[in-house]
Structure formats: C-alpha cells, structure tokens
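Hi all, posting the design record for the shared folder.

TITLE: backbone redesign
STEP: 1 of 1
STRUCTURE INPUT:
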C-alpha cells in the first residue's frame, strides 16, 4: 500500500530560513505568522493529509464517482466525511479575507496546504482547490452584494466553486464558445449551453456549488472580445441567504478518465439557468483569468506533490527490495542480495525526483509570497513588480512543474520494476493522476506560447529583466561569500544560456513567428532549470552557513548541499542542449507539408 508523509520540516526550512517570511511583517497576516504558529498549522495540516486524505486515495481511485439518473453525483466512500472534517478544521478559510470569515493568513501557508493535499489525495484536493479560484474572481470583480451573498459560505467551505470554460467544439480557442446569456427584465440572465471537462462540477460534499460560466450576450462582438462571465449557482440563493429552488444546471454525464477517478469531471448542461453577470459585459476573460492564474499556480503545485509522494514511496521500496549486488561488491554481505538503492541507476531516478521536488517547493512558496506582495505591498511600485514577476513565473511553474512531476512519477514507478505496474503499490495511480496536470488549465504547450508570446515582451521585457537581475545578484553575492564555486560556475553558464536564448527570440521571432512556436517549449524548460537552480543556490548558501555556525541538525544541511550539487551539476547540463534546440529555429520542424504526416 502506498504511503505519504507531509514534508513539514522542509517547508519550515524554506519559510523561515530561506525565504525568511518573518521579514514581511508589513504584509497583512504575516505579523501573526510566527514560526511557532506556522509550525502548529503545518503539523495540523499534515495530520489531516496523512490521516484523513491519504487512506482514501487508492480506494477512491478504484471506486470513482457515480452519477444518478437525475444528474446527482456521489463521491467515493469516505470523501464526504473527509470534506466535512476539512470544513470543521477551518482549512477552507485559511488564507481568505477576514471580512468574509477567513483567517487572513499568508498565501505561503495555503500553498503548503495545497501541496500536502495533492500528495495525499490529488482527486480530493481538486474540490476545494477550484473553489479558491472562484472566490478570488468574486472577491476582485464581484459587486458588494455578490461578495456578501457567496463569499462567506464559500470561505467557510459549505459551498464550493467551479470554473466553466471548455465546450465540446472549443478548448483553448475561447473565442469560439457558443453558450448564450439572455438578459431578463429583473437584471438576471438565462444561461443556455453545454460545458465539458468541468472538474468538481457536481458532487455531494457541499450544500451548494457556485459555477462561474463564460457565455455570450446577444449583441456580443465575435471572438474573445465578446465573452462575459456569470455566477450560476446550483441552488438559487434567497434574500436571507438560505437556499432556494434548484437552478437549471445539471450534470449530463461523467467523463471516463485515465486518472483522478475520485474527482467528478462533468459535462454540464445549462438550460435557461439563472445567472448573474460578474464584472463588465464582454469583459469576462479578464475575470476568468483571475481564476485561471490562481489555478495554474495550483496545478504547478500538483506536479510538485506528485513528485514528492512518488519519490517517498520509491525510496521506501528501494531500501527494502533486495536484488543483485553493488557494482563495487556486496554492500550487505549478510543478506542474499543488496537493496536496490545501492545501484547508481536507481539512485539517478530517485535523485532526479528529489532534486526537482525540493527546489520546486521553494519556488512555489516564493511565488505565493509574490502573490501576497502583489496584493498588499505598501507601495504601488512594489505591488506592480511582484505582479509582473508572478505573471512571468506562472506559465513556467505550471508547465515545467507538471512536466517534471509526471517525469518524476514515471521514474519512481520504474524503481519498482514490475511491481510498479500493478495497482496495489499505488505507483501506476500516481502516473495516471499526474498526467492530467500537463493538460488542464492550459496545456503545457499553451503555457510555453504564453511565456514566449505574452509574458516575455510585456512592458518591454520588464519582468524578465527583473528576474535576470535577481538571479545575477544571487550569483554575485555567493561569489563574494565564497565556498560554493562548484555550484556558482554552472549557474552562471545556465543563466547566460537563458539570456542568450531570450536574445535569440527577440532577434528571430518577429521575422518568422514559427521560430517562437518552435522555441517555446524548450525555452520554458530552460527557464525552469535556471529558476530551480536559483532556488538551489539560495538553499545551499543557507545550509552552508548553518553548518559553519554549528547547527544542531548537520545531516539535514549536508544532504541539502549534496542534493544542490546533484541538481546543478547533473540536471542543469540540459540547458546547453535546450539552447541548441532553440537556436536551430523552425525550418526543419515546419518543412513537411501537412499531407505528408
């Protein structure tokens, strides 16, 4: 049976020692987030993930969700009870606005909670995860009445939320959507259409489900400039806040999927359902992207969560499984064979997953800190800079983390040999579940195009220049401090490769847009390597200093330095190949005529 242990110690190291969130007491919620409080919250979150969610992961996958004739959906055994404990524990409102009943704690703690829930039970984590995005859109673009109607119950967790974009004929190209919104005399709208792939679209865990739906007004312009966003609750809400009659929205069917079986992925049918405009008419994409960006960071954390849980289980197996002898001779001569962890190629799989997960965790928490700064930093300049950095990092985190999360899950499955292919060990479920994260909330190829086509040139390249400066300063300060030369030199070369790739795009993408398309995915992964290396450099400096100062946990910090050197010396070598791929252009890629395929 698979297991999961929340990486609380590593999270505490990143929060307190590496990112030093105690220095951000000028941000709301941070002054209250003392190391003791952080430790208490993370320990309780770990207990919830390990004791309530993880035991339901395998059984939930095997049972899946079921749909009744009337469209109602039942989640697997134990999920409803676990969600009730999630609500009872106050987890839904951990980082939410106190004005609507939230605890107002830093988003960095929310990211840690998300990782734990994904590592323990990806399918379960998606139900409250989607609510967070819906709450963000209502909080930012909703009217005061809409906020007061929906947010308190959503913050409490009694109501959940969804986002409804995709239609049978329309995925990434939202300009093609057909769902209609007919204005009514009372100021509401009648929403009619079909949405597909709606995660958590119908279930039995909350009293109400608040759907945020993209649709077109009758006089809307064609394309993406004619899309509006509507709140469409499963049950209408009366003036006193109680639930009224069932709205005209129903789950038409459940998708039969490769993974995440315990999450209901629904075809949603809207038949003159009552909806309420959120934001301005024909400006719905702006509001939807509030949800999309929150969801994309959350999906990136899914890649991290899968890498962590797959690694943990593969390590346990590698230490226990006896097979063959070390190439250097028997390491455990008293046993009939050595455990497979002595073999270099097994360790390669394990170290690839470990070195990714530990750095990715740091980047995810840093991104969450930037989100908090973008909302609440004391000056407009600080808020704008943080928002620009988050915008640049979001497609990298979503695309690279989920690609690497899947890669890590497959590599750790490989450690099990044939046992990794059968269900009882849980590894094949990790692989199946991880695969969806590369696809939804904008497939990773779209993330790469967004990075190259929108995020890089935004504001004249302001964000990429800021990031280059941050990384360059980290390298320079470590050079001055001394002692990490074997890490700094490869980092310098990798940063130079990223800068050179960026310059190549500036010089070649305008003349031939296919050059941008051909370069986008390798560019995204080159960027990913460098930002992960940046986090390893920060962690290595902290651990080196801790060892010099006589830490009471030398093993932890020695292991950090070993893992940092592994990542930067073995994995970041890929940046050279990625640069060569980028600079090869698009000629050979686009040479074949379509009919030749």
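Okay, here is what came back for every position:
SEQUENCE:
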């Amino acid at each position: 049976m698979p297991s999961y242990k929340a990486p609380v110690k590593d999270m505490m190291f990143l929060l307190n020692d590496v990112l030093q969130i105690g220095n951000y007491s000028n941000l709301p919620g941070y002054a209250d987030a003392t190391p003791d409080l952080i430790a208490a919250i993370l320990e309780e979150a770990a207990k919830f993930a390990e004791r309530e969610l993880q035991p339901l992961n395998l059984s939930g996958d095997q049972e899946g969700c079921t749909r009744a004739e009337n469209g109602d959906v039942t989640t697997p055994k134990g999920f409803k009870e676990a969600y009730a404990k999630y609500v009872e524990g106050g987890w839904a409102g951990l980082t939410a606005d106190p004005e609507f009943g939230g605890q107002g704690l830093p988003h960095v703690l929310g990211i840690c909670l998300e990782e734990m829930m994904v590592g323990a039970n990806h399918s379960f984590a998606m139900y409250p995860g989607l609510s967070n995005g819906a709450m963000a859109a209502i909080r930012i673009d909703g009217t005061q009445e809409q906020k007061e109607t929906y947010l308190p119950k959503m913050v409490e967790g009694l109501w959940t939320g969804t986002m409804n974009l995709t239609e049978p004929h329309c995925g990434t190209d939202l300009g093609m959507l057909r769902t209609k919104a007919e204005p009514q005399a009372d100021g509401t709208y009648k929403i009619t259409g079909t949405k597909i792939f709606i995660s958590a679209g119908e279930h039995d865990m909350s009293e109400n489900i608040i759907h945020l739906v993209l649709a077109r007004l009758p006089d809307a312009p064609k394309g993406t400039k004619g899309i509006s966003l509507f709140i469409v609750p499963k049950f209408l809400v009366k003036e006193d806040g109680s639930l009224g009659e069932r709205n005209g929205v129903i789950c038409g069917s459940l998708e039969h999927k490769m993974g995440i079986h315990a999450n209901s992925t629904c075809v949603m049918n809207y038949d003159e359902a009552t909806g309420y405009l959120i934001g301005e008419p024909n400006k719905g994409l702006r509001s939807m992207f509030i949800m999309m960006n929150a969801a994309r960071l959350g999906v990136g954390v899914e890649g991290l969560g899968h890498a962590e849980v797959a690694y943990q289980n593969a390590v346990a197996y590698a230490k226990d499984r006896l097979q063959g002898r070390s190439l250097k001779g028997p390491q455990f001569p008293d046993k009939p064979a050595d455990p497979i962890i002595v073999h270099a190629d097994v360790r390669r799989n394990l170290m690839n997953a470990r070195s990714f997960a530990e750095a990715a965790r740091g980047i995810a928490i840093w991104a969450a800190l930037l989100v908090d700064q973008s909302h609440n930093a004391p000056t407009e300049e600080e808020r704008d800079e943080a928002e620009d950095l988050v915008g640049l990092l979001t497609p990298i985190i979503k695309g690279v983390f989920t690609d690497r999360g899947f890669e890590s899950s497959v590599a750790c499955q490989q450690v099990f040999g044939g046992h990794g292919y059968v269900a009882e060990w849980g590894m094949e479920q990790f692989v199946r579940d991880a695969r969806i994260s590369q696809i939804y909330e904008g497939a990773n190829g779209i993330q790469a195009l967004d990075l190259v086509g929108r995020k890089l040139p935004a504001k004249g390249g302001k964000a990429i220049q800021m990031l280059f400066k941050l990384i360059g300063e980290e390298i320079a300060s470590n050079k001055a401090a001394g002692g990490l030369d074997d890490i700094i030199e490869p980092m310098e070369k990798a940063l130079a490769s990223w800068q050179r790739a960026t310059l190549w795009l500036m010089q070649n993408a305008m003349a031939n847009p296919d050059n941008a398309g051909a370069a986008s995915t390798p560019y995204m992964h080159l960027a990913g390597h460098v930002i992960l290396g940046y986090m390893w450099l920060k962690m290595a400096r902290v651990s080196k200093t801790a060892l010099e100062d006589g830490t009471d946990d030398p093993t932890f910090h020695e292991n950090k330095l070993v893992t940092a050197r592994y990542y930067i010396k073995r994995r970041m070598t890929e940046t050279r190949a990625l640069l060569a791929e980028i600079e090869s252009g698009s000629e050979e890629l686009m040479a074949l005529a379509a009919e030749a395929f």
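COMMENT: The longest strand covers residues 265-278.
Let me know if anyone wants the other runs.
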